[in-house]
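Render this sequence as a predicted structure.
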Amino acid sequence: MSDQTSSEHIATTLPHKLVAFGVIVLALAAAWQTTLIPQVLYTTVGPSVFAWFVAGFLLILGVLLLIAAFRGGWAADQEGTLTEWASLGWVALGLLLNVALIEWIGFILSSTLLFAFVARGFGSRQLPRDAAIGFVLAFVSYVGFDRVLGYKIGSGLIESLI
């Protein structure tokens, strides 16, 4: 590899390496903050378990991104643009509707809409199926948080019936 090709390679993969290092730093910060969570002595699985899982996942992701960066970066970035504006629009619209409607129609219906819009953003064309899957997931989540854990996550049309 010539000096010019080598410097071009470093310049093109530098943003990828910076993102990878950023994710690794985020993982280390998450691990550090997890050590500050008070431990509960009466349970074997305390409040820090999920935080450790997230920190570990971020660390693995950062290392894999770093390996990909040293191998030449992400192929999709080299082929052309990564941004799919229509897909991003569907996901953003789903998030905005969820935030705007959760107080009025409740957690289950707003989360169902969110799931369907995100699925559409990822390329699904099966709106009834996606809405049904989203409804089941939102319903189970609501029951788990509200009824089992006693944590109120929003009430609305369907939540008042159950």
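Summary. Residues 41 and 47 are 11 Å apart (CA to CA). The chain has a mean pLDDT of 83.
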